[in-house]
Amino acid sequence: MNQDKIMKRRMITAIVLLVITVIALVIFIALFVDESRRVQETYRRQYTTELRHVNEELSIYSKAEGDLDYHYTRITVYMANAGSYAFLIENFTDKQITINEISTCLIKYPQQMKTKLKELQTAINDILSDLDKGYDEVKAIYETIDLKGK
Questions:
Q1: Using CA atoms in the order 18, 22, 25, 29, what is the torsion angle rounded to 10 degrees?
Q2: What's the gap between Cα 142 and its chain centre?
Q3: 72 neighbors 41 (Cβ within 8 angstroms)
Q4: How many C-beta atoms lie closer than 10 Å to residue 149's C-beta?
Q5: With contact defined as beta carbons under 8 Å apart, do 81 and 109 qualify?
Q6: Torsion-angle region of residue 108: left (phi > 0), alpha (psi -120 to 50) or beta?
Q7: How far apart are CA 96 and CA 132, in angstroms?
Q8: Helix (H) and strand (E) counts for the chain?
Q9: Can you spell out the DSSP letters for 115-147?
Q10: What is the distance, to the nearest Å, from the Cα of residue 144 to the centroid of all Cα atoms in its chain?
Q11: Which of 12, 16, 17, 121 registers the highest number of CB atoms within 10 A of its CB?
């Protein structure tokens, strides 16, 4: 008889501990998902900020204000930063590739890219307006670059 009471207590204790563990696990998963969502929002915000910087520098460059080489370098750096943030964003692979390709062109082919900065500005404006055609425009710019040239 005593043995039955001890076994019932142990079973009740085990069930209570199991319920507490399951509740803790559910809370942990919910917190993890929420934090992941916040981090992704931060990456997207930073990506957009970098593209805005590119857009501002393109405007300054097109107005031929100040040291053009300096502004071109800033355009290149901001575009590379945008590519870095695009790498961190989930489900963004195609767009990330497009941004990285144009960033590479800005670095490797400055003579060709300087003639296409107006088109790039239009594409960046479309991207900032959440239009997918902006990525298509960037891809079109990339495809017009002679990758064997300067």
A1: 170
A2: 20
A3: no
A4: 9
A5: no
A6: alpha
A7: 13
A8: 6, 0
A9: TSHHHHHHHHHHHHTT-THHHHHHHHHHHHS-T
A10: 25
A11: 121
C-alpha pair distances (Å), 106 with each of 42, 54, 72:
26, 12, 9
The pTM (predicted TM-score) of the whole model is: 0.81
53-92 pLDDT, tens digit per residue, is 999 999 998 888 778 889 999 999 999 999 999 999 999 8
Structure tokens at 89: 């964003």
Q: Which residues contact 114 (CB under 8 A, 6 or more apart)?
A: 72
Q: Tokens 């970098």 sit at which residue? A: 50
Inter-axis angle of helices 68-88 and 93-108, nearest 10: 160
pLDDT in tens, 22-58: 999 999 999 999 999 999 999 999 999 999 999 999 9
Identity of the residue numbered 72: Y
Assigned token pair, 17: 């501990």
Q: Which amino acid does the sequence have at 84?
A: S
Contact 128, 82 (CB under 8 A): no
